[in-house]
UniProtKB/TrEMBL annotation:
PROSITE patterns from the UniProt entry: ABC_TM1
Transmembrane segments annotated in the record for this chain: 45-70, 114-138, 145-166, 178-196, 221-243, 278-300
Bias type Polar residues, positions: 11-20
CDD domains assigned to the protein according to its UniProt record, in alphabetical order: TM_PBP2 (cd06261)
Single GO BP term: transmembrane transport
InterPro entries cross-referenced by the UniProt entry: MetI-like (IPR000515), MetI-like_sf (IPR035906)
Domain ABC transmembrane type-1: 110-300
The protein's name in its UniProt record: Carbohydrate ABC transporter permease
Entry annotated with the keyword Metal-binding: no
């Protein structure tokens, strides 16, 4: 007696059990590739490719001039003018840096830039911290009106106040002095606004607890607010530092002697020494001016981005 396997019923076919023919519900949707079903990588969309091309183009726009600056600073004079362009120097012309340093009093320029940048940044951030704390935590009559005026000043070009500041500095006898270079620029509405926006995110419970413990405003600012706002303070400090280092117009107006001028103004001396543009020393001098701020940015970029993103997430 032989046994035969029972024929699958309609219900077995519909459930898709092994050994049965799959129904329309069991078949995979049409239009999907076998690579996609197997878990393979997705093909890049045209929009993704276009975005990548745009990012690469933007990177080239910013990176190529910087590379050309550094390569030209190390090229002999005749290679800078050759066409087609040479992207790598045939030999390293370190004498361009020596000529740039000796053609003008770059030692005095560097000293003045360091003094004005460090002192000006410290004073500007200090004033911004105090004013931001006052607007965020202290109540006084007319606070919002004063705040609106300060923020509204950001809409005006900074050159509007050049004449007034120059007349004030001249009447005080501060021309060709460090105080004339530093003090007119310590009131920054931009740094104050950045720090104010961050201080608004500080939980009021922390400042209230410090007040219950007997802490005054200054102690609350130092022990509670500043540690929480440290990433944004670092971000504002770097922005102000770069602006102070690269400032050209104000030092040019209030200084008339070489011993009080800063590095950006010193580059003009390299173009006027021989009556023609010797681009090798000019490029080398530009590298001397730009290299410190590039180094500061690359060393602190992680903290800067972290401070900006932290403020964005909290906001």
């Amino acid at each position: 007696m032989t046994l035969t396997a029972p024929k699958p019923t309609a219900s077995a076919k519909s459930t898709g059990t092994p050994g049965t023919e799959p129904t329309a519900d069991d078949r995979p949707p049409r239009g999907r590739s076998s690579r996609r079903r197997a878990g393979g990588p997705r093909r890049p969309l045209p929009a993704t490719i276009a975005l990548q091309v745009l990012v690469a183009f933007t990177f080239a726009v910013f990176a190529v001039p910087i590379y050309w600056l550094f390569s030209s600073a190390l090229k002999p004079e005749n290679e800078i003018y050759t066409f087609p362009l040479t992207w790598l120097p045939s030999e390293l012309a370190w004498e361009n840096f020596a000529e740039a340093w000796t053609s003008a009093p770059f030692g005095a320029f560097l000293k003045n830039s360091i003094i004005t940048t460090v002192a000006g940044t410290a004073l500007e951030i200090g004033v911004a911290l105090l004013s931001a704390y006052a607007f965020a935590f202290v109540y006084f009559r007319g606070k919002m009106l004063v705040f609106a005026v300060m923020v509204g000043s950001l809409m005006l070009p900074g050159h509007i106040t050049l004449l007034v500041n120059y007349i004030t500095v001249s009447n005080l006898g501060w021309l060709n002095t460090y105080q004339g270079l530093i003090l007119p620029g310590i009131g920054s509405a931009f740094a104050m606004f950045l720090l104010y926006q961050q201080m608004r995110q500080v939980p009021s419970e922390l400042t209230d607890a410090a007040m219950v413990d007997g802490a005054g405003h200054f102690r609350r600012m130092v022990t509670v607010v500043i540690p929480i706002c440290r990433p944004m303070i670092l971000t504002a400090t770097l922005i102000v530092l770069i602006a102070k280092w690269n400032d050209f117009v104000w030092p040019l107006i209030v200084t008339s002697t070489a011993d009080m001028r800063t590095l950006p103004i010193g580059l003009m001396f390299l173009r006027s020494q021989e009556g023609y543009d010797s681009w090798g020393p000019v490029m080398a001098g530009t590298v001397i001016v730009a290299l410190p701020m590039l180094a500061v940015f690359f060393l602190a970029q992680r903290r800067i981005i972290g401070g900006l993103t932290a403020g964005a997430l909290k906001g």
